[in-house]
Specification:
The chain is α/β, with parallel strands linked by helices. Helices cover 31% and strands 24% of the residues. Strands 1, 2, 3, 4, 5, 16, 17 and 18 form an 8-stranded mixed beta sheet that branches. Strand 11, helix 6 and strand 12 form a beta-alpha-beta unit. The protein is globular, with a radius of gyration of 20 Å. The model has no long low-confidence stretch (mean pLDDT 97). Bound molecules: zinc ion. The site of zinc ion has 5 residues, from loops.
Length: 424
Amino acid sequence: MLLVKNGRVLDPASRTDAVMDVLLGGETIREVAPAGKIAAPQNVEMFDATGLIVAPGFIDIHAHLREPGQESSETIETGTLAAARGGFTAVCCMPNTKPVNDNASVTRFILDRAKAAENVRVWPIGAASVGSKGEAIAEIAAMKEAGIVAVSDDGRPITTAKLARQVMEYCRSLNLPVIEHAEDISLAAGAVMREGVTSTRLGLRGMPAAAESVCVARDVQLAELTGAQLHIAHLSAKSSLEQVRSAKSRGLHVTCEVTPHHFTLIDEDVTYDSRFKMNPPLGAREDREALLAGLADGTVDAIATDHAPHEPALKDVEFDKAPFGILGFETALSLALEQLVNSSRISLMRMVELFTVGPARVLGMERKIAAGQPADLTIFALEHSWTYKVKESASKSRNSPFDGRTFKGAPMATIVAGRVIYKR
Ligand SMILES: [Zn+2]
């Protein structure tokens, strides 16, 4: 048993914000009480959380662990270790591995590897179509049986409206969210960043914001047609956010996530350095402002990292040729504190919600600090000052634009199923 003592418990589900003790017994929370009120059983292990925030375990609803098939960039073991260091207790891994997670045997392989790694929980996302090729629907029911929590063809959109409709109808009957990487392929073709003054100045091909929002419009209409749950991945454009807001106001089951890099950086930050190349690309200043407003007003449901490791041999090439994506796990919480909380954009409680209850709700789950709940906790400091050095990352890759950035606030410990799997 483990007694987490004297921490400031922040639990969005019960709106608790108080100094409490939390007793973990095996895989579940045993008791939560004001500090000093739990009669500690003999030989209980202690974790002194004085001065620290104790939150429900953070969930990352969007990550790439690269295994099977691209183990030189990341493995389930290194990825989940990096996730633990970022304060995440569970990560959802996208199916664009080699082979693609489009059938139950790949799903089971991922879960077996995650079990062997004994780090954070891994919740696989299955492909919507076979090979994520956008032609035939994947074996979604069999994958659900094996343990997927959602479907997506992430890395690309579900290619046609007809297939997207079919996937949504199927997932509605299975009660699975459909996660869309919203991108109109024809508008985005050949582009490496957002279209605008900066892309012109750099001489790089840009895609308009509409490359995303046209696809969001299609999918919102299909969600309305089918009654399915639609979740927009890594939403980056103001026009996309407005559609999600309007869909929610009409009572549709439409949700979305935003990444730390999209609420921190904009297209003007892009240089010829490929660490600024991601998809969707960094938006305009007004997009970032809209995302910040959406994070504050509840339109955005979750902060997701889109952790996308690429080994140096692939990523350290000229901008046009580099793959899209950056690391995300180890900087997500600190960027959220810096950009959202320390700048007074949102409350600390709301930030915790965006990492916990928010993504859990998208997945049809609960997240709270209460007796009987899974013993997953994220413990972090508001004041701890540190510098992110990517060469010390637990990830196998080094592609982060935040290398060398100094932060105030950091993950201090990650507890999964009652076990401290990371301590700073
Ligand atoms: Zn994507």
